[in-house]
């Protein structure tokens, strides 16, 4: 569970609500059902028009990554691959079959199985790189949908404001209604800006960060499997894989080789 996403949304809404209540007019004046219908309903409708329904359904699995996510760290992946390299070097690559029983990364398991089966290195790289590309494309679709919703919601907020202004201008003969009408018109802009900047665009950013981290780990896995298959010394495997991560993260890699 990624508590940062949940804490961010709850704390953001809380701060906004507290600030509105401290304004002296109370929260009730900010609740306006027609404005919600224009901004929320309009944003959802525009998203459905822009993307096929099956793509929106398919992206729901990706969206879960912003709230419930268990990502391996690059250090943990490197440690696991170096341990595989050590075992393969001592006992042969076929012995890695038993190690896969405790592995929980489907991408890693598929890659190691290909190596155990004696698949050519070029073919292993092609298969895993193709899978990596499609995973990245699916994730990019999820990011794109939320980025687009972050663009639509302020636009529908502005549309709601224009609708409110038109209605207000029709009652200019009653000056007492102008202030209230103007406030009502601006509520849709408030809703649209809040949804875009507190929900949609931050979630798109979180998904983008997740994707970058997942792609890095998959690239480490590909290089590690190919290095094991070629019979590299475990120390060489470790150094190859550490080259993918920053010097700060390299200090977090604790393999048995380093311990000795």
From TrEMBL:
Q: Where in the cell is it found?
A: Cell membrane
Kindly state which keywords UniProt assigns to this record, in alphabetical order: Cell membrane, Flagellar rotation, Membrane, Transmembrane, Transmembrane helix, Transport
Q: Does the keyword Cytoplasm apply?
A: no
Q: What is its membrane topology?
A: Multi-pass membrane protein
Q: Which domain of life is it from?
A: Bacteria
* Positions of transmembrane segments: 6-31, 145-169, 181-205
Domain spans labelled MotA/TolQ/ExbB proton channel: 101-217
UniProt signal peptide: none
PANTHER family membership: CHEMOTAXIS PROTEIN MOTA (PTHR30433), MOTILITY PROTEIN A (PTHR30433:SF2)
Q: Which family does it belong to?
A: Belongs to the MotA family.
The protein's name is Motility protein A
Instruction: Print the organism lineage.
Output: Bacteria, Pseudomonadati, Candidatus Hydrogenedentota, Candidatus Abyssobacteria
């Amino acid at each position: 569970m990624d508590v940062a996403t949940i804490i961010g949304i709850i704390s953001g809404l809380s701060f906004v609500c507290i600030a509105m209540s401290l304004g002296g007019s109370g929260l009730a004046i900010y609740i306006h059902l027609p404005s919600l219908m224009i901004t929320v309903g309009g944003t959802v409708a525009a998203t459905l028009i822009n993307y096929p329904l099956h793509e929106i359904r398919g992206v729901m699995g990706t969206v879960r990554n912003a709230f419930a996510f268990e990502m391996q760290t690059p250090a943990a992946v490197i440690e696991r691959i170096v341990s595989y390299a050590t075992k393969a070097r001592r006992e042969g690559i076929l012995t890695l079959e038993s190690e896969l029983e405790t592995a929980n990364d489907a991408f890693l398991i598929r890659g190691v199985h290909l190596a155990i089966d004696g698949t050519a290195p070029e073919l292993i790289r092609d298969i895993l790189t193709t899978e990596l590309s499609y995973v990245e494309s699916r994730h990019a679709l999820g990011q794109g949908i939320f980025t687009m919703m972050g663009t639509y919601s302020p636009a529908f907020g502005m549309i709601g404001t224009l609708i409110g202004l038109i209605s207000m201008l029709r009652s200019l003969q009653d000056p007492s209604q102008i202030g209230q009408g103007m406030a009502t018109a601006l509520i849709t802009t408030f809703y649209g800006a809040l949804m875009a900047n507190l929900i949609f665009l931050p979630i798109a950013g979180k998904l983008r960060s997740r994707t970058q981290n997942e792609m890095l780990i998959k690239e480490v896995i590909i290089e590690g499997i190919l290095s094991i298959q070629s019979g590299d010394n475990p120390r060489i495997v470790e150094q190859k894989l550490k080259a993918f991560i920053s010097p700060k993260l390299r200090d977090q890699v604790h393999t048995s080789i380093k311990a000795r």
